[in-house]
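Help needed: design a sequence for this.
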C-alpha cells in the first residue's frame, strides 16, 4: 500500500500520547499503536514503519518509549524512503535524509519538505499539525553559515510544495551524535488544526534579519483534537533570547512562555497533569537540576522525558515541547 486508507465521516478516531516502558515487541503487537519513538542507542528496534529511533540521548536511567495510540484501525506502510502509519483521520510520517546525498543540510531539508509535501498531497490526511526536525551540530558555523540557518533556508524552499498551508507546530533540535542524517517526523490529519501564537513572543516566521536570511517557518503551537501541540519553546521574549547562560532563569522564562501559549489557546487547565513534555538540554549535566525544577513547579506533570540536544541559539540551554490536553 502506498498511501493511507480513507476514513468514514461517522467514525473519526481519536489519538492519545504517552511515555511507556513496555518492550517494543509488546507495543507493536497492540492494534491501536500508531507510532513508537525510541531515543538514543535503543537496541533491538524492529524494521517496522511505525517505529523510529531518534538520535537524541535520553537523560534518564530507564528512558521510556513515546507511544502514539489511535482509537481507530491502524494501517502502515512505506513509500520509497518515507514510512507512514495512519488511521484514516491521522497520519504518522517519518523519514531520514543523508545530508551528503543532497549537498549538505540545506539541500537535505529542501528535499525532505518537498518529499513530504508531495506525499501529503496524495493522502486523505493532507494537513500538517506537528513536525520534529533533528540534525547534527545545529550551531556549527558562523553567521549565515550556521547549520541551523541553512536548515531554515532549505526548509522554507521545500515548504513551497505545501501550497500556502498554515505553518505547523514544530521543533528543531541539534543531535550530538555526529551523524549527518536529518531526521524528520510528524503528524498530519484529515482536518486542519488551528495555529496558535504566543503574545509574549514575536512569531518565528516574523523574526528580523539578524537571525538569518530566512525566518523559521513554524507556529508556536497547533490546536487540534482538544489538544495543544506545543512547539519547541525556550527563553525568548519578543524575538530576543533572555537570561543568557542562566539555566534557572531560562527554565522560569520558558514556563512563562508555555503558560502564555496555553492561555492564548483558550484552556483553563494549566501545565501539569494534562501535559506530556520533552525537555531538551544542551548540557547533559543539567538533567538533575531541570528534573527537580520541573517537579517543583509542575508536581502533577503527566509525563516528562529529558533529552540531550543543542538548542537553535547558542546562548539557550533548554527547550521544551509537548502535548497538552485542553479539556
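Sure. Designed sequence:
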Amino acid at each position: 500500500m502506498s498511501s493511507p486508507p480513507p476514513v468514514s465521516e461517522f467514525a473519526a478516531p481519536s489519538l492519545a500520547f504517552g511515555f511507556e516502558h513496555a518492550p517494543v515487541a509488546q507495543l507493536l503487537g497492540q492494534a491501536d499503536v500508531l507510532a513508537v519513538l525510541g531515543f538514543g542507542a535503543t537496541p533491538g528496534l524492529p524494521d517496522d514503519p511505525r517505529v523510529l529511533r531518534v538520535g537524541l540521548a535520553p537523560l534518564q536511567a530507564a528512558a521510556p518509549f513515546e507511544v502514539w495510540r489511535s482509537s481507530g484501525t491502524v494501517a502502515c506502510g512505506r513509500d520509497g524512503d518515507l514510512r507512514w502509519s495512519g488511521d484514516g483521520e491521522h497520519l504518522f510520517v517519518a523519514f531520514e535524509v543523508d545530508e551528503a546525498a543532497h549537498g549538505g543540510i540545506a539541500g537535505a531539508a529542501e528535499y525532505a519538505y518537498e518529499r513530504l509535501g508531495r506525499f501529503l498531497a496524495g493522502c486523505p490526511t493532507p494537513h500538517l499539525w506537528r513536525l520534529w526536525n533533528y540534525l547534527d551540530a545545529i550551531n556549527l558555523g558562523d553567521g549565515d553559515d550556521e547549520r541551523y540557518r541553512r536548515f531554515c533556508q532549505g526548509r522554507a524552499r521545500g515548504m513551497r510544495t505545501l501550497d500556502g498551508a498554515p505553518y505547523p507546530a514544530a521543533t528543531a533540535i541539534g543531535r550530538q551524535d555526529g551523524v549527518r542524517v536529518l531526521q524528520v517526523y510528524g503528524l498530519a490529519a484529515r482536518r486542519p488544526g488551528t495555529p496558535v501564537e504566543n503574545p509574549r513572543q514575536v512569531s518565528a516566521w516574523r523574526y528580523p534579519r539578524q537571525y538569518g536570511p530566512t525566518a523559521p517557518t513554524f507556529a508556536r503551537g497547533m490546536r487540534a483534537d482538544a489538544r495543544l501541540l506545543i512547539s519547541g519553546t525556550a527563553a525568548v521574549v519578543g524575538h530576543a533570547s533572555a537570561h543568557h547562560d542562566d539555566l534557572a532563569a531560562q527554565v522560569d522564562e520558558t514556563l512563562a512562555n508555555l503558560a502564555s501559549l496555553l492561555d492564548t489557546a483558550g484552556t483553563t487547565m494549566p501545565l501539569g497533569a494534562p501535559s506530556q513534555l520533552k525537555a531538551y538540554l544542551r548540557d547533559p549535566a543539567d538533567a538533575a537540576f531541570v528534573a527537580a525544577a520541573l517537579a517543583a513547579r509542575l508536581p502533577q506533570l503527566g509525563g516528562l522525558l529529558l533529552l540531550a540536544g543543542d538548542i537553535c541559539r547558542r546562548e539557550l540551554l533548554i527547550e521544551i515541547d509537548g502535548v497538552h490536553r485542553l479539556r
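The CA atoms of residues 151 and 182 lie 10 Å apart.
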